[in-house]
Design brief:
The complex is a heterodimer of chains A (about 290) and B (about 140). Chain A is of the alpha+beta class. Chain A has one domain (about 60-265). Helix content of chain A is about 15%, strand content about 25%. Chain A has helices at about 1-15, 20, 115-125, 140-145; strands spanning about 60-65, 150-155, 160-165, 170-175, 190-200, 200-205, 210-215, 220, 225-235, 240-245, 255-265. The N and C termini of chain A lie far apart (about 60 Å). The relative contact order of chain A is 0.19. With about 140 residues, chain B is of the alpha+beta class. Chain B has a single domain (about 5-125), classed as OB fold (Dihydrolipoamide Acetyltransferase, E2P) (Beta Barrel). Chain B has helices at about 5-15, 30, 80-85; strands at about 30-50, 55-60, 70-75, 95-105, 110-120, 120-125. Chain B has a 5-stranded mixed barrel with strand order 1-2-3-5-4. The longest helix of chain B is centred in the N-terminal third of the chain and has 14 residues, at about 5-15. Chain B is globular and about 40 Å long. The chains are: A alpha+beta (about 290), B alpha+beta (about 140).
Amino acid sequence: MTKFLCAAGLAGLLIAMAPEASAQWPSHPTRNVPRNEDGSVDMDAPAPRTAAGRVDFTGLWASGGGFGRGRGRGGRGGPGGPGGNANAELPDSPPVASFGNIGANIEGGAPYTDEARALRDQRQAEGSKDNPDAHCLPMGHMQFHLHPQPREMIQTEDVLVILYEGNAGIRQIFLDGRTTPDNDPWPWWYGYSWGRWEGDELVVTTTHMKDTWLDVNGSPFTSNGTIIERFRRPSFGRVEIDVTIDDPTVYTEPFTVRVNQRIMVDESLIEFVCIENEQSSEYFDD
Amino acid sequence: MRSRCTTFAAAVLAAALGAAAAEAHHAFAAEFDREQPIELVGTITRVEWTNPHARFYVDAPDPELDGEVVNWNFELSSPNGLMRQGWRPDSLEIGDEVRVMGWRARNHAHVANTRCVEKDGQRLFAGSSAQVEGCTDD
């Protein structure tokens, strides 16, 4: 009887605290979600397609939950976020990147030049105080991809827009046939990204990025670099992005890592105005 | 000693709320010091349900000042993450007495990153920017 009353009381408490009952962003059912008999999302159902027959990346995505080489654990100072570890080993796949350390699963780590490794070490020793994320600034593609907060992809025929909840990032990937501009544009926080389809794979090229960080530990990336991302949606519930970093200023050779994302349904992106009450930098140890 | 029901309730509540999830604004090690753990009991004087970090302020004794009561600024995770874990804006209210565990600011200010908050004998996970596995019972 005691256990029954205890359980009943708990059930009431949990219902009272359920996000649907209490959150300012109430749950709303996502349309066209394939489900199993028990109501759970059928993660292995086929990926949806656009009217033009392209794989459709539209959806709300959480970091992690896919497949690749390595467990994706971050180095010191780098949490992996909820569900951030690969859940299966695939020896022939790129190593899984970690939010804290892009080269966490690369034997020997990322191929830093000596100067880049020293810079990374210094940033780590300083507790990542100069991480753009820590100052409410755009944090670069890799930190955005792996950030614990979700991201919404909105795909049209001409553009893939990614809205990042973390620091309210906005990224455009042009799909309208344009390529890298030849008028030497000024480097931007998000760089200049354009994509082309190779079958069901979207291959995205980004150049003209401001110097940024590839992970919380401070792996550098400069405006001289190029990022190639190969987006795939192998099933309804998963996105895989193979990211190739090619920046000879700070890396001795190009290297490729895997980013995994998993679908979130019946939820929404929540606004995040970072500068609203930013106090942390007042307490950084200088 | 807690009753079995309270212990069971705390465990299930902890499971429902989930492990602490890291949120935005990552430079924990620059701001907070794992070598300065603190544990305080005090009364909430203010709550800020804001990004990038929700905060609550507590009048509590400073053990290094012979127990003089000072106002502490405790940093939580983003309200976005807290809400997804079941928190409400009124989960902590002015006047609540709480027990808080966390890590103090490196510059020794009366500021700390919150690891655990206990109110009315139950723990609410704070979701700090540190990589933690969640608080465990004593």
